[in-house]
Amino acid sequence: MATDTGVRPERQKAEGGSLRGQRRPRTKLGLLWRSTIGKKTVMAVTGLIMVGYLVVHMIANLKIFFGAEEFNAYGHWLRVMGEPFLHRGWGLWTARVVLLAAVVLHGVSAYQLSRRDLKARATQYAHKRGRASYATRTMRWGGVILGLFIVWHVLDITTGTVHSGEFQEGRPYENVVGTFSTWYGNVIYIVAMLAMGLHVRHGFWNAAQTLGVGNARRDRVLKAVANTLAVILTVGFVSVPIAVMTGSVG
Ligand code: HEM
């Protein structure tokens, strides 16, 4: 019989999700967070929030093809977004807080789910080494690469801490061109963008399954949407370093 965490007791124990010895959560939200399906739902919802952000970010990045003035005006708008209703910077900080919460919840759930998976495999395959599938391992490594990339990207383009050359406050166009004027800037970003494409492709599909959107009829459409989304995002983002490298932006 399934428990209120949605997992059978014997499987829950094998997955390390047993509540024995742990304080039982008092609220429904606490119970959901403890359960495997709850963590998968958190991953799906936060993943979709981040994909939404990536689509907007990729489209905004394409403004770089229209020159420094237009791109820097967009950088300025990020800071004054919501004015005069909001105080300067509040709109940007709200977006930052939502994104940071999504990244942290996504990462913590992924870590906890893979620990459960490893424990369950150790129990089920006591005599054999039960390895995670290729897709699962790609997702885990892709997630780690993207986490590291986000930290690098913010230190590079927002604070300027690791920026190559001179960082110019309020001039994202010149800063982006600076980043893609070094070989390692191109390598870091292009590798991260390819990892992002693979992660989005598989993650979007996983999220649809978790949220119960998939069925035999819709699966083909969902796979096509996941592939198209991944290709558009990868090509859109990678077009910027390629444009700087080839001299069409600079
Ligand atoms: C070629 C690829 C990319 C370029 C050229 C690029 C460029 C930029 C620029 C110009 C900004 C605004 C900086 C500012 O004015 O403060 C920014 C912000 C940001 N980007 Fe990207 N980006 C790229 C890819 C990505 C990817 C793939 C992610 C996520 C996985 C990402 C996450 C972010 C985040 C979270 C911020 C907000 C940082 C803040 O809080 O100010 N970017 N990016």
From TrEMBL:
Keywords: Membrane, Transmembrane, Transmembrane helix. The chain crosses the membrane at residues 41-60, 90-111, 138-155, 183-200, 221-244. CDD domains: SQR_TypeB_2_TM (cd03498). GO terms for cellular component: membrane. Coiled coil: none annotated. NCBIfam families: sdhC_b558_fam. This is Succinate dehydrogenase. It comes from Streptomyces swartbergensis. The lineage of its organism: Bacteria, Bacillati, Actinomycetota, Actinomycetes, Kitasatosporales.
